[in-house]
Amino acid sequence: MRQYQRWLVAITVVVLTTGWLGAGLAVKVAEDELRSKLLLRTATAAAIVNQERVGRLTATPADTGTADYEYLRQQLTAARSLNPDCRFVYLLKMVNGQVVFLMDSEPETSTDYSPPGSPYNAASEALRHIFLGSKPFVEGPLADEWGVWVSGIAAVRDPADGRVIAVLGMDIDAREWQSGVQNARLIVFGVTAAVLSVIFIVFYALHISAVAARKVYLAEKQAKETAESMSQAKSQFLAYLSHEVRTPVTGILGLGELLESTRLDGQQRDYVRAIAYSARSLLTVLNDVLDFSKIQAGKMTVESVNFEFWKVLTGVNTILQATAANKGISLTITIDPAIPLVVCGDPVRLQQVLLNIAGNAIKFTDAGGVDIKAECLRLDETAVNVKVTVRDTGIGLTQDEINKLFQPFAQTEGANTRKYLGSGLGLSISSSLIKIMGGEFGVDSAKGIGSSFWFTVTLQTAQGNDVINDIMLPDARNEANLLPRWASEPVDRAPDRAGDVLIVEDNSVNQQVFKLQLKHLGLTADLAATGQEAVLMAAKANYKLILMDCGLPLMDGFATTQAIREYESLTGRHTPIIALTANSLAGDREKCLAAGMDDYLAKPVSGKELRHIIERWLTLESEDGIDRVVLGQLKELADSGQADISLFIDAFLEELPLLMAKLKQAVLQEDTRQVSDAAHGLKSMSATIGAKRLAELFSHLEQQAQRGKMEAAKALMAKVEDECRQVGSALKNAASRL
C-alpha cells in the first residue's frame, strides 16, 4: 500500500472516531440544554402558582368548582398555553404517604383527565423525595399509562415556612425531545461526512500529484534528482505564495499612499489610513505563516550578535511593570554582577522567552510578587553560562500539571483556562527556543504556594569587554522610573468633555469604524486602546455606554469589566457594558454576562446590529428599579411559548394588592413574624418578575421585622406603597423596550 493510502486510511479512522465521539458529546450537550430549558420553565411556572390557594385545597373531588380550584386551573392552563410543546401540566400532593393529583390542566371531558385525589401510581422515588425538600429536577424519558414523557418537576412552597405543599409537573412528549437530540447527532455526522469529503478530495489531488512526481522520477531515473525537484517545487510554491499575496498588498499600499497625497477631507484620509493599516496587518500575518512553516520544518535559527544582557532584563521589567502594578503585586529583578556587560547571542529570542515566563507569572499571581533573578553559573574567557529564574507567589502547580505544561495547546487546569485564558503555546515555544540556544528549561512548583520557572543558556563573551564589577539595579527607590507614565502617576486620560460612549478596542481600524458608526447614530465616542486606560477613563467620565473588546492585550476585556464594576460598587453607578468579541460559540454570551457585562455583540458588527444594541440600552437610562436581565429571561420564556410577557406582569400585578393588604394588616398589628413572612414572599415574587427596587424594599422590611424594629418597618411602608404604585408602569415600559 502506498504511503498516501496509508495516511488516508489512518486519517479516515481518526475522523470517523472523532465524529462518533463528537456525536456523543453533541447528544449530551443537546440533552443538557433541553433539560435546562424545561427546568427553567417548570420552576418559573411553579413560582407563579398562588401558594395560598394551593394550601386551601384538600386534594379531593370536593375541590372541583371552588374559587381556588378554578383560579389555579386558569394558571395551569395559561402555563400550558405558554409551552405549546408541553402535553400535560398538573399539580401533585402527598396525602398519607401517597402521591395524588391535586389539579390537572386537561379538560374534564378528556379521557386523560385526572380528577383531584386520584392516585399517581407512576410516581418515582425522586418525585417522592421532592416533597421532602429536594431541588427541582427533570426525569425521563419515562413511560407511564399516558405514554412516554420527559417531565420537569418543581416544588410549590409555603411562603411562610418554605414547606413543600405541592409539586408542579410539566410533561413533554419524549418523541419531540428525542427528535431534538437526533438532530444534534445528525449535524455532527453531517460535519464528519463533509470533512471526509474534503479529505478524500485533497488526497485525490495528492494522488494525482504523486503520479506526476512518479512519472518525473521514472523519466529522470535518479532518486536524488527527484528529491531535488520536489524541494525546488516546494520552494517555488512558497515563492509563488509570497509573490501572489505580496503583489496585490503592495499595490494596495502604493495606491493608498498615492491616494493619501491627493486632496481629501478628514474622514476620507482616515479611511485611507485604515486601509493601509489593514494591508500592513495582512503582510504581518503572511510573515507569521511563513515563519511557522520554518519552525515546523526544523529550520528555525537563532542569531549571534553582541548585546547588553542587563538591558534585556530591565526592558522586560519596563514592559511588564504596568501589568504588575495594575494587579497590586511587586515585580523586581536581580542581576549577578559577574555577568559581563556585553555578551553574544540572540537578544530578541531571549527577551521573547523572558516576557512569556514573567508575563505568565504575573497573570497567575494575585498577591505577593514576581522576582526575576539572573545568576552566573560559569564564566571563562570565551563564554558565560547564565541561569535565569522567575519566581512568583501565585497559584502553583501539581506534578501532574507540570508534566503536561510544555505540551502545545495544553492548559494546566480547566478553571485556570476560564479565568486567565491563553492559547497554551507560550511555554512550549519558550522551551523549544531555549533548547535551540543549547540550554535547559525547567520548573519547580507547589500548589497554592508559587512557582519557579528557570532556564540556563550559554552566551559567548564579546571580545574587548571586561566583566562588570558593579551595575545599577532597580530597587525601591528607582523602580518607579521603569513604570509607564499612566501606572506610576495620576494621569488625566479623559477629554475635557467626555463623549457619550467609550470604545475599548486595541485595533485602530476597528476604533475608527465603531466611532464613525456611532457618529451616524448621533453619538460621540472616546477611545481607549488598553484595559488600564479604559478603567481610568471610565472612573473619570460618566459614559452612557461602554463597548468592550474581550481580547485586549495584557488586561483583557473581562478583567477590565470587573475592575470597572469594582469601582462602580463604591459609587453606586452602573454603566452598561457591551461585549465585543470575535468568538460566537455557545456559552460566550453567558461568559460575558457572568463577567459583569450587560450585553454581547459578535464581530464583525454591522451598523444595524450596533443601532439595535444602542437603542436597547440608551433608551433604558431611567432609574425605574427594573432588572432588565431578569425581565429579558422572562421574555425569552414567553417567546418560547409564543405568548406575551404581559401575562407574567399581569399575574404579578393581580397578586400584589392582595399580598400587600395582608402585609399592611400585619404591620398595623405589629406582628413581626407575619410581617417577616409576608415581606419574604413579596421579595421573592418581586425579584422573580424583575422588580429589583421593590424586592430590595421588601428585603429591608423583612430585616427590620426580624430585628423587632416595627417603628422602622412602619416608616418603610410609605416607600413600599409608593414603589408599588409605580412598579406596574415601570415593568410594562421596560418590557415594551426589550
Automatic annotation (TrEMBL):
One CC-aspect GO term: plasma membrane
Domain spans labelled Response regulatory: 500-618
Topological category with respect to the lipid bilayer: Multi-pass membrane protein
Enzyme Commission designation: 2.7.13.3
Domain Histidine kinase: 240-461
Entry's Gene Ontology molecular function annotations: ATP binding; phosphorelay sensor kinase activity
Pfam families linked: HATPase_c, HisKA, Hpt, Response_reg
Modified residues (4-aspartylphosphate): 549
Residues modified as Phosphohistidine: 680
Catalytic reaction(s) noted: ATP + protein L-histidine = ADP + protein N-phospho-L-histidine
Domain HPt intervals: 641-738
Transmembrane segments: 6-27, 186-206
Principal place of residence: membrane
Domain of life of the native organism: Bacteria
Keywords: ATP-binding, Cell membrane, Kinase, Membrane, Nucleotide-binding, Phosphoprotein, Transferase, Transmembrane, Transmembrane helix, Two-component regulatory system
Subcellular location, record wording: Cell membrane
Family statement: In the N-terminal section; belongs to the phytochrome family.
Entry protein name: Circadian input-output histidine kinase CikA
The species this protein was found in: Sporomusa malonica
